[in-house]
């Protein structure tokens, strides 16, 4: 017999049992009308989670990376200029993908731990009077550093310059867990995946397109086949996919959307803020610091925690796995070995989180760091006691 601990990686996240069961449904004929009963609630539900009235939603059998490719290849032409900031591993990878597609990326190098420099974006956009820049990329939540960025400020930079560039937002580790406003922020393409806030296995790229991005797709010439939104839209019009859909995963998504919308998306966001605040208080009680440079950029879905110089932070992750059977996230790229990450998103309660904090404490004490057992747990407990969660007994 083996028992399963919750995971504390920043995705894939823990799966509620009801979602797991929804994914393992019996085979149906995906060309029968039954599929439409799964497809359309998914499209409508995702639109609500994005806080949009009119976004065109597409769901591909893929992951967040495929969502990036869907955004670029459907809207741009080879040689087009894209503005992006590199402040972590995932913004770096999206930039790399742009370059591999023959796009000209104007990169604003930004220290890891900082958010997107909206002021610099504003100056660059203002100076771009010929409107060479076609798209501005924004990674809403840098999962590598635990840093969120101010997307409203990026939209304000575009508006202040009266610039027509489209705004593409990577919400892979924010959508369905942190405040995300497709319409209010004037987002043109939002990208996410199934394995984070939606509490599903990896396997779905979920994207939303504005009317403006849809119009751009009519003339965009970058090569695309599998990720062509036109083929996908034609499929949807007939309750189908242009190829075989991942029906089980989509049935799981339908169920996940029911859970999220029943809880209320603002309550989901508040739950993540509450749980994250407890984690941050624990980190402070340990005498450690976050990679995120200032409170305004603290992520509510993942905390990247710096360990003292000379200590390999990855040892905590390895030790937690080997000794306690618990998964934390390693540091990536520039911060590999310097931080370990606690994921706090998806299907999570205070009590689960406290067990993760207790495990992190045991690991750090085992490995010789000066951590008083119970110190971080107590700090989080005090906060959770003072700010009790609404108990949801469903599912
Ligand atoms: N963007 C962000 C912010 C991510 O955190 C990730 C994955 O963790 C990705 C993109 C890539 O998504 P995927 O691994 O689903 O392809």
TrEMBL record:
The record's InterPro entries line, in alphabetical order, gives: Aminotrans_V_dom, Aminotrans_V_PyrdxlP_BS, AspGlyoxATase, PyrdxlP-dep_Trfase, PyrdxlP-dep_Trfase_major, PyrdxlP-dep_Trfase_small, SP_NH2Trfase/AEP_transaminase
Set out the biological process GO terms recorded for this chain's protein. glycine biosynthetic process, by transamination of glyoxylate
The UniProt entry, under Pfam families, shows: Aminotran_5
Residues binding substrate: 341
Task: Using the record's annotations, give every residue carrying the modification N6-(pyridoxal phosphate)lysine.
Answer: 196
The alphabetized UniProt keywords are: Aminotransferase, Pyridoxal phosphate, Pyruvate, Transferase
Signal peptide residues on this chain, from the entry's feature table:
none
The family classification in the record reads: Belongs to the class-V pyridoxal-phosphate-dependent aminotransferase family.
Its protein name is Serine-pyruvate aminotransferase
Q: Which organism is it from?
A: Ascidiaceihabitans donghaensis
